[in-house]
Amino acid sequence: MRYFEMKKARIEIIPMIDVMFFLLVFFIMVTLRMIPATGIASQLPQSSTAQQLDHPKLVVTLFGNGRIKVENQVLTLAQLTDRLRAMPDHTHAQVTIAGARTASLQSLMKVMDACRTAGVTAVGLAARHGN
Question: How far is Cα 90 from Cα 57, in angstroms, rounded to an integer?
Fold first, then answer.
């Protein structure tokens, strides 16, 4: 009477492993997507010819009052130059200046001069693509 024989219950772990891998991949993708979204909110100027640049090694935020911020630290121009010089291979470093819409051209030139004094030649300007 095989019909009435009790079968031993088995717990299948293969579907559980599949679900765990799916959750792991999901959380990794969400985490990686959140990293570039962090930063300082500023009103960038618009440009109809703006192009996508490579990911910079350093982003310098220039505010309307002339204050500069790098990685959540307020710096002077001399401190910015020293920080750029301290970077390994600073002559090939890529710096992007994210200037506020209200920042003066003179403030922008001072930041660019500080970068050039440190030996950085690849300086980009951040802009929003617009009309």
Answer: 10
17-63: pLDDT as tens digits: 999 999 999 988 887 776 554 454 555 666 666 666 666 578 888 88
Angle at 47 between CA 41 and CA 49, to 5 degrees: 130
Angle (nearest 5°) at CA 80 between 75 and 86? 130
How far apart are alpha carbons 78 and 73 in whole angstroms? 14
> How much is the pTM?
0.58
**What single-letter amino acid sits at 131?**
N
DSSP strand E in the chain: where? 46-47, 58-62, 68-70, 73-75, 94-99, 122-125, 128-129
**Cα distance between residue 86 and residue 118, in whole Å:** 9
